Amino acid sequence: MTNTLKSVNKGKKGILFRKSEDTNKTRKDRKTKKVSFSLHKKSNVSNKGKSVDDMKKKINKSKKEKLVKLVVKNKKGKVLKRVVVNPLCDTCLTVEHNKAGSMFSRNEENWKNFPYHLPILGRKTGDQTVEVNLGKKYKNRLIYYFAARPSKLQITKIFPDSYKNSKNNGLMVLDNEGKCKVNMDCPLHYKDVPPKGHNNDEKQGYVTHVHILVSDAKMSKWEDDMFTQSVLCKIDKYQYKYHILKMDRVIINAIDKKYSLPGTYGSIDYQRAKVMTPSQLRNKVKKVINNKLGPKFVSLFDVNNVINTPLLVYCHNPECGAAKELVTSLYKAGFYNILYYPGGFLDYHNREK
């Protein structure tokens, strides 16, 4: 009998022991469920040790699964087709409907990753900065600016090819004075038909420029008028040296010849240029070229029409205004293909002012 009691007690102990084990296991399961971060209710797998990227992928996968309305499978169970609910776009995951029958969603992507060109508001890139001043009449308005394709070497093109596939544009808001600075790349200069009133069949060369559209005061539409502003393209020392090697531009010093740089054809004093007639200034440029090149002038540049000659102008330092004033005189004389080296004498010799 003693053996029998021991057997019973042993059996009871076994039952109690197993019950205790089952209870602990249930508690453990409950504890696991309580702290589980799984996206699926049926899964008890913890996300401990998974990277942030893995979690994002899992969340995105869950969002996409919610979009699936119908799954079509073949006899073997292979998925043939998935029909998506609210098929607005592939990154539109929170689609809403309005009474007009349209859909709206915030995209789960950054617009900067769009693979095609978009005009940028407040564009910061570009090798040129242009100051725009439309006056107080147009204060606090939106402008859209656009120009011909960028060109470092300023190869002459014919309109409208110069604007083909151009991404040289942007958007900007004018300040209380109707002013702003816009960033862009140096646009191509090109030839087109002469201005109205000129009886000439020959194509006319035009300076590098940018066109500007202005919105109305409410920014609800563009005004009918369009503005155009010249862009005097600036180059650095390395580009200056490139043009010396290529011999593709007549380089002119706008101040005293003692500040002339290597590659300079000659000096044209900016103050004297102001009082010259267009014809006199054209002849002066032709003389400068002849003195430097002699007979080579004919082979490198257009002798019969000197205004087609590519020019490069500089003076002493970035604050020196002589070069810009000479450029203005050259523009008035008909020259249109001009580059400006603002660093001038000091920059070329790596000297501070």
List keywords for this structure.
353 residues; alpha/beta; 4 domains; four-stranded antiparallel beta sheet; four-stranded parallel beta sheet; 8 helices; 29% helix; 22% strand
Structure commentary:
The structure is a single chain. With 353 residues, the protein is of the alpha/beta class. It has 4 domains: 1-35; 52-111, no CATH class; 128-230, no CATH class; 237-348, 3-Layer(aba) Sandwich (Oxidized Rhodanese, domain 1), CATH 3.40.250. 29% of the residues lie in helices and 22% in strands. It has helices at 2-35, 52-67, 237-246, 270-275, 278-293, 296-300, 322-332, 344-348; strands at 68-73, 79-84, 96-97, 103-104, 128-133, 142-147, 157-158, 169-173, 179-184, 190-192, 204-206, 209-215, 222-230, 250-253, 266-267, 311-314, 338-341. A 4-stranded antiparallel beta sheet has the order 8-6-12-13, with no helix packed on it. A 4-stranded parallel beta sheet has the order 15-14-16-17, with helices on both faces. The protein has a 3-stranded mixed beta sheet with strand order 7-10-11, with no helix packed on it. The longest helix has 34 residues, at 2-35. It is elongated. 20% of the residues are buried. Residues 4-8 and 30-45 have low confidence and may be disordered.
